[in-house]
Amino acid sequence: VRSRAAASSVAAMSSLKILVYGQTTSRVAKLLWSLGELKAPFERDERSLLLLKQDAAYMAIQPKGTVPTLVVESGAGAQFVVNESNSGVAYLASKLGAGTFYPSTPEEVAKAWEWLEWGETSVAASLSPVWFGLVKRGGYPPGSPLVKEVGEDGVAVVVNGKSVSRTLGIWHTLERHLAADKRKFIMGEHLTMADITAGVHANRLFHLPFDEIGADMRTTLPFTRDYYQRLCERASYQEFVVPYGKGPAK
Which of 136, 120, 214, 123 is nearest to 162 (CA)? Predict the structure, then answer.
């Protein structure tokens, strides 16, 4: 028997037209992965940010001139716009995955938001410059020159202004959380919106060149490694997240 929450989610989905603006970045990937997990049909506008900022219609709905932007139109023609990635994830989870992808109690929702924010303010802020430097071989913000300091052993110490050791150390927060009761996902046995930001960046973490950072995260973060492997078993993660953690094709 389909649950009331599941039935209402299916009904809501059938009346929506969902559009995601932006080429795939870590923040855009959060929305795409969430939509994939929710099995929600959607369309994309993959124009570059430069082109989008030259489009008056886009700037009218996204005056900050950033991506992603999520536009949801109902059958009645009403349009709802969200232009922050974590807010978009939470909105989709609440509207289309209540009680499953979106936690069922206010306390669980608050905890899920803690992890969404941790993934952006702590993890992404430190990992992105390092990942762009060692995987994309460029500077940060993208388009700026790479700046890298290397120790006598050849291991990267600072990349694009961020300490490599501190960047890796931040992940011990998640490692301890997962190890405490050997949970499969951040909120427990099931994937929720709490996993989205950390999950996107876990893909970047495990694509770092271990020889250049002087650590193999598969052995130093075993619970996070297993968590990442579980994510990789999910079709939506494979489609919308995994390909974008890799460097340029050789």
Answer: 123
The label of the residue with tokens 């499969």 reads 184
Type and span of the H or E element at 33: helix 26-37
Q: What is the mean pLDDT of residues 92-102?
A: 96
Longest dimension (CA), the chain: 64
Report the alpha-carbon angle 51-83-198, nearest 5. Answer: 105
Average pLDDT, the chain: 93
Torsion of CA 3, 7, 102, 109, to 10 degrees: -70
* Structural element, H or E, at residue 87: helix 85-96
Point out which residues pair with 17 in neighbouring strands.
73
- Give pTM, 2 decimals: 0.92
Strand 43-45 to strand 17-21: parallel, antiparallel, or no bridges (unpaired)? parallel
The residues near 227 (Cβ < 8 Å, ≥ 6 apart) are: 174, 178, 184, 185, 202
Q: What distance in Å separates the CA atoms of residue 55 and residue 9, rounded to the nearest whole number?
A: 33
Mean pLDDT of 147-161: 96
**For range 30-54, the mean pLDDT:** 97
Instruction: Determine the Cα angle at 235 with ends 234 and 236, to 5°.
Output: 95
